[in-house]
Amino acid sequence: APAHPTTTGTAKRKAYKLVAIGTSTGGPVALQRVLTQLPANFPAPLVLIQHMPAAFTKAFAERLDKLCKISVKEAEDGDVLRPGLALLAPGGKQMMVDSRGTVKILPGDERLNYKPCVDITFGSAAKSYGDKVLSVVLTGMGADGREGARLLKQVGSTVWAQDEASCVIYGMPMAIVKAELADAIYSLDDIGRHLVEACL
Hints:
The protein is an alpha/beta fold. It has helices at about 10-15, 25-35, 55-65, 120-130, 145-155, 170-180, 190-200, and strands spanning about 20-25, 45-50, 70-75, 85-90, 95, 105, 135, 160, 185.
């Protein structure tokens, strides 16, 4: 029988179909730091969930688009995921992805604290893409992302967390680490490089 591949090579061979990044407090700077390191030919689509009010996400996406080599836009209902495009969840709404590679934007549910909510997007990614998701939880208050990350882990996807030293608020990543869901913990400055290595 052929030798089993070593674990070091599994990330590359997995061929991620989606990179999902969730963040809150400190997120705008953190997302800029990560996304500006990605090349224009980045081979996976990205979805970004940043806790932010409705009036701000469009301008934030436009700003990132100017700064990054990849394309960034505020997600609209029916947008198609494609390599080298990052779709930012619109403030005040919820963003889900389906297995056809289409984004669904839903009205924000008043019962949920976060609009957009990382758990909702991560959960839909787990359902639609199984083990082909690379998710990253960056700086932020609270624990949004933990339950979504749990669903992603259950189907074999990968979860990374930002390390405490580089976080503005070590809340969301800490929730991931404490729940033992993190496959890797990286400093903010290294996450972009690791995304490129894992996906290219």
